[in-house]
Each structure stands twice: as structure tokens, then as C-alpha cells.
Amino acid sequence: MSDSNAARATPASGPVVDRLAIIGVGLIGSSVARAARQWGLARSIAIADASAEALAAAERLGLGDFYASDPAEAAKGADLVILCVPVGAMAAAGAAVAPALKPGAILSDVGSVKGSVAAQLAPVTPPGVHLVPAHPVAGTENSGPEAGFATLFRNRWCIVTPPEGADPAAVETVSRFWSGMGANVETMSPERHDLVLAVTSHLPHLIAYNIVGTAADLEQVTRSEVIKFSAGGFRDFTRIAASDPTMWRDIFLHNRDAVLEMIGRFNEDLAALARAIRWGDGDTLFDLFTRTRAIRRGIIDSGQETSEPDFGRRHDVSGAG
Ligand SMILES: NC(=O)c1ccc[n+]([C@@H]2O[C@H](COP(=O)([O-])OP(=O)(O)OC[C@H]3O[C@@H](n4cnc5c(N)ncnc54)[C@H](O)[C@@H]3O)[C@@H](O)[C@H]2O)c1
Ligand SMILES: O=C(O)C(=O)C[C@]1(C(=O)O)C=C[C@@H](O)C=C1
Q1: Total H helices, total E strands in the chain
Q2: pTM for the complete prediction?
């Protein structure tokens, strides 16, 4: 992340914006609502969702101050509108809010792919409205309004990808908003974001989905109860294969080039390992495993552990969430 500006942040109370609108109140949208409420980052929160069920759940949970099925209703008068919908739905959500956006409003999102989202949102962003996309690198394998929690973003990265020439004050507002929820904010180009996330997030999900599929197919062929007797390694490795199919279909289709590049590299490295196993080349295996063990342990030591989203953070803050 060398071309970026890191801003280590502490959760802060006090309004960053007057009116916040959240479009899509699933895992991420509901977590933003909870965190914004908990730390008083907005004076009022309006929520919209295409699903009547999700909207009713948000209302039951008391996540906002105003609820609407029409995104434009929620976005009306908002200072900051955050689209928390699947990457493939960003253009539709952006077009839906666009006519309601007031001059000077900030349009942002939380999509896991940034190049495509910028391309979808730029054409529908009205003149005088500031487009500042962002991506909280935090989540779980669960989805829907009930799955969210206020501390989801604490001590996690939020990558902000402002378009060239973006208004610095708008970028600062979005950064302060995410810092206020406890995230560490970096700015980065969308291209760099998509390349980095292709290997750190997208490829692992693809591999997890694939290995569960392989094991399930094997089970059908051998009737050997592969899944029933799956060992700890399989379970640790495949938690993320329970993630939302719509979200991940969209991520792979919208970050196609970077993901294909990473699959190519991964296949080459896997072929090298297969060769080492075939030829009994223990040194190659041992050297790689020693190196990767140190890297993996370093990730945990740095506090950027990401494999267990529930590791106490859900319970360490009282109040909403
Ligand atoms: N889940 C994660 O771990 C994670 C982490 C970081 C970022 N993200 C990104 O956040 C976004 C939301 O993911 P999520 O996990 O909260 O998904 P989710 O499935 O929990 O929630 C998405 C919500 O958006 C609503 N929606 C879909 N299309 C809509 C539209 N056109 N207008 C209004 N509402 C609409 C759905 O009804 C649903 O309630 C995605 O872009 C995803 O890539 C997800
Ligand atoms: O921990 C998980 O369940 C996640 O998959 C979270 C995760 C990730 O890969 O780190 C998934 C996608 C998002 O864009 C950001 C975070």
C-alpha cells in the first residue's frame, strides 16, 4: 500500500454529517447504521432497501430514524449517501438516488470492487455532487440486517478510492466518518485496490467455494461422508464458502481481469508444489511452509487478523450493536 496515505484512527463521537442515508441494509449497511448511531456520527439516519423484509427488520431493530422502500426518499436532503448494495446493483441504486441528491451531497458506497463501481456511479452522479467510493475491508460470511454489528469496522482497514480531482473536503468527510467507526483509513487508486483485493480477498473466496464443491462432488461419488467427517483444517479453511452467492457472483464478474490474473499466478504456484510433491522435493515444501508460517503469524501479530470476525469485538462495546 505504498502509494497511499494511512490515517490511523480512533473511534470518535460527534456528528460528522447531519443526515446520513444508507441504501441497502444488509450486513454492511446495518453495521454502518449501528456504528454511526453508537458513536453519534450522524444527527439522523435514513434507510432504504429494495427488500420489504430487510426494511421491516431494520425498523424492528431500530437501526434508523426514517425508512423508505424508495432510495430517493431516503436520499432526499442527505449529506452523505452510502450505497450498501451488491456490486452488480450499484448502477441501479445510484440512478435511483441521483435525482434526490442535493448539491454538495456526498455519494459513497462500500462495494468490494472499486473500478467497476466508479464506472457505474460516475455517469449517474449529478454535477455538484461529490462521488467518493470506499471499501471497508471487514465482514463476515453472514448477510442481512440481523447479521450486522457496531464494532465490525473497528481496527480494520477502510480503503477510500477518490476519483481524480475529487473534492478534498468530501474525501476528508468520508475518511472521518470511517475513522469515527474505528476503521483505519487509506486512500488508493481503484485499480490498485482491485489488484490487491483480488489476491487477499477474492481469490481465497474462490478457492474456498471450489474446495467445498470438490469435497461435495467426491462425497457423491464415494458415499464416504467427506463433509460429515471434515477435519479442522477443512472447517477453518472454508468458513467463507458460506458467504452470500449474489455478492460473490458480482465481485468475480466485476473484478474479472485482476481475479483471472491471480488465478493464473496461483495455478503456476500450485503446479510447482505438485511437482515438488511428485519428485519428493521436501526442501521446496519445507522452505515455502516456513516462509508462509512466518507471514501468517505476522498478520495475526499486526492485529489485522481477518479469519474470525466474531473474535470478541461483537461483545466489547455496550449499547447498539
Ligand atoms: N459481506 C461482507 O463481508 C462485505 C464486506 C465489505 C464490503 N461488502 C460489500 O458491501 C455490499 C453489501 O454487502 P452485504 O454483505 O451487506 O450484503 P447483504 O446481502 O447483507 O445486503 C445487501 C442489501 O442490499 C439490498 N439491495 C440490493 N439491491 C438493492 C437496490 N437496488 N436498492 C436497494 N437495496 C438493494 C438487499 O435487499 C440487501 O438487503 C456489497 O457491495 C459487498 O461487496 C461486503
Ligand atoms: O471475513 C469474511 O467473512 C470476509 O469475507 C470479509 C471480506 C474479506 O475477504 O476479508 C470479504 C469481502 C469484503 O469485501 C471485505 C472483507
Answers
A1: 12, 10
A2: 0.91
